[in-house]
Amino acid sequence: MNDIALIIPEVTLLAVACATLLVDAFVGRQRPAATFWCAMIGGLVALGELASYVPETVRFAFAGTYRQDVLGAVLKGFILVLVLVSFFYAREYFRKRATPHGEHYSLALFATLGMMLLVSANSLITIYLGLELLSLSLYALVALQRDSVKSSEAAMKYFVLGALASGMLLYGMSILYGVTGTLDLSELLIKVSVSDDKRMLLVFGLVFLLVGIAFKLGVAPFHMWIPDVYEGAATPVTQFIGTAPKLAAFAMALRLLVDGLWGLAEEWHQMLIVLAVLSMGLGNVLAIAQTNLKRMLAYSTIAHMGFMLLGLLSATASGYAASLFYITVYALMSMGAFGVIILLSSRHSEADELADLTGLARRSPWFGFILLILMFSMAGVPPFAGFWAKWFVLKEVVQAHDVWLATVAVLFSLVGAYYYLRVIKIMYFDEPLQPAAIEGGQDIKLVLSVNGLAVLLLGLAPNALMSVCVGATLPYLPWQ
Amino acid sequence: MQLDLPLLSTVIWLPILGGLWVIFTGSGRRERSVRVDALVISIVVFALSLLLYRDFDLSTADMQFVELKPWIAAFKINYHLGIDGIALPLILLTTFTTILVIAAGWEVIDQRVNQYMGAFLILEGFMVGVFCALDALLFYVFWEAMLIPMFLIIGIWGGPRRVYATVKFFLYTFMGSVLMLVALLYLYTQAHSFAIPDLQAAQLTAVEQQWIFIAFLLAFAVKVPMWPVHTWLPDAHVEAPTGGSVVLAAIMLKMGGYGFLRFSLPITPDASAALDGFMIALSLIAVVYIGLVALAQQDMKKLIAYSSISHMGFVTLGLFAIFDIFAGTSDWQAATMSIEGAVAQMISHGFVSGALFLCVGVLYDRLHSRQINDYGGVANTMPKFAAFMLLFAMANTGLPGTSGFVGEFLIILSVFKASFWYAFTAATTLVIGAAYTLWMYKRVVFGEIRHAKVAALTDINAREAAILTSLAALVLLFGLWPAPLLDMMHASVQHLVEQVAQSKLSVAAHE
Lengths: 480, 511
What we know:
The structure holds two protein chains of two kinds. Chain A is mostly helical. Chain A contains 21 helices and two strands. In chain A, 77% of the residues lie in helices and 1% in strands. In chain A, strand 1 and strand 2 (66-68) form a beta hairpin. The two termini of chain A are 35 Å apart. Chain B has a two-stranded antiparallel ribbon. Helix content of chain B is 76%, strand content 3%. Classes of the chains: A mainly alpha, B mainly alpha. Chains A and B meet through helix 18, helix 19 and helix 21 of A and helix 5, helix 6 and helix 7 of B.
């Protein structure tokens, strides 16, 4: 019974996901709003339950396969909020196209359940379970627009590459299990740090694990799926993939590498440096060549994830806090950027080409301004949240005495600034081709405005979110 | 009367909030009322900054009007403001220049007026923030945030190649800044604080100082701009609208010099001493070579832009010659004079270059050309304008009695004590500067009227006359009576020189 008490939010979410499916099947055809509100209210209930119980110390459940701690609670909270906000955008997108879309919500909720499992995993099996639940839901989400060739291609690609990555991950896990004889991360932690004789084999397993993690995070050289999936999927699906699952992938990295394989920190530190530098380089340079906004944002994601990894490899509690802060802020910015695409799109146009933004500042000064905030924030220019995210990570890198790495990172950010500036140039300096005003529901306009202003507000007063991130990763202190 | 208002915060945030208000309420209103609002806000801000001057204590080098509030408590980052005698004149220059810029854009800007006026007000707030910040991160935030309005000003209201110019401007400055950020983070690991006084007190080895100095140098040299990272400036100036050029030349360039004064010299004194020959060489190249480049320009704005680089070379010369001056005289008093000369030169250059860009703006508004060859004989149709421009041209050449003379004279006089050849090379600019400025003046203003369009020119109106008169008065005031300016900064500069004189290397580490 005690075990069940710990996973009440997850149980609720499962119930809500199933209920949403049923509501959609029986009521949703006549009243699409019913499905939306079912998912929304259910999600809010789960969020409330999550907030009502934040454990002070780590609690384990189900024979040690599941852990509940502050980091888990914080991450789950962020994930749920991001998912629920993305529902507003999704509703707007499908409303404009007048297509039935109830499955979107239930699949997204199943994916969320997977993310929450992943965040709280304390065993290799739970990690795999959560990851597959997440991934399979995402494959289905991408494929949801079955009439679109692009979407189907993207889904196929995502599925094949994703299955390959899962296989790699599983292979790495099997090696770890073979060496240590345990699936439990806490036991793994102890066994790995004492078994010096089998270190070679463990590192071999680690490599495969890292490939899996890198794929899910979308860092180079395992990034190939990102641009195609981002471009091919319907914009709200891209938005979904580009926000909450990043947090889950971060949690997976933290659980596996720090909770389980801290003994191999020296090895994964080196590997993460390579992944981070490659991602920042490839992502930023290739983004310059893109003419499709979604594709550009895809490459920008790769670069951002590389930057985020820098915090992880500093291997200190505040380094993890920096990464957590970075990825949260990134998710918020990315949410807004895709939100603008959704707002601009119409029944006949996806509005995902850079040219579609031409003269946006004239067509709609306010939403031009919102996208301006988001772009400068992604480029890391103060006073926006993105600056503090970069600052926090850089501070940890410098404190870990990797000044050269910080220099490389800022120089790649400089490259990155170019394509963000280009978006602003198109919005502000070019004359609009179509002087038409923007059509969109009041709700999405409000959500998007709040989203953009949150990025500004977090830039002016980052203290609160930073404190939350520092507090969430504090339990990692004793090891260092 | 003592106000309880946090004066520095007001001078920073009033224009920013006012600017936002103008932008968001101005789109539906009549343009005239938007302009009036912006002008009123800028005048109120200037009046408030005059209160700073009134209540400023000249006798101390301590930071005044200090405000200290925790900002990001977890990392001891504070909202920490305060000014000394170096920051105050620059703040006054900023608030004053903004009024002129808003007045100068009165009729010329007819597109997106509210955004134009708002952008300049927001820019003003950020610039004042740079000069007030006593926390390195707060400084950095203002320093970078400033790029955003300027980027938009050049990009939206600029000339035909505005996109190229503004992206170049942004990326150049951004490059320098991000390296400065890494240096600041490194300093944090040593000093465990971002407070500028703590950073100044941090003990650093010679190698650390040199790396930090180089990172700072990249940030500040781009802004000054020093040769060879100056190439963004002519492009930005040529493409920017008049107001943008004025703010760039009058204030933004000064931030580089201010950065050297606030960061490089006190935080890395030993590296500054070790690399001073390099800095002096770059400065002299800027003074002489860029002066010669200016001579060859056909575009008035480009000519003044190159003249700015050359004049700012004087500033960096004055700042980094102090070590040789001390070596030559064993007297830090002469070094103080050199730095005072540099700051006086910055302020004077603010007036003079701003005024010259406004003069070019006056011509450009009428004829829509900046080419020297399109003019000639302007004095015949615009006698009042010709008189004003003559004064500013003379000030640009450093004629005694104008503000341009004070700084250049103090610097050359001090540098003589370091090396005759430094002073000799620097002094050649008096010839080159006179050559390019007066030659341009001659070709534009004197001679026969060669184009029908010039014959149709109308002289300056009351608004333009008011702007130019106020600048002319200041140029003459500080030229004839520079004492108030020098008194303002004296204590602070003296304190700075004492800081620089104190090596951070312990004797053991040195040997």
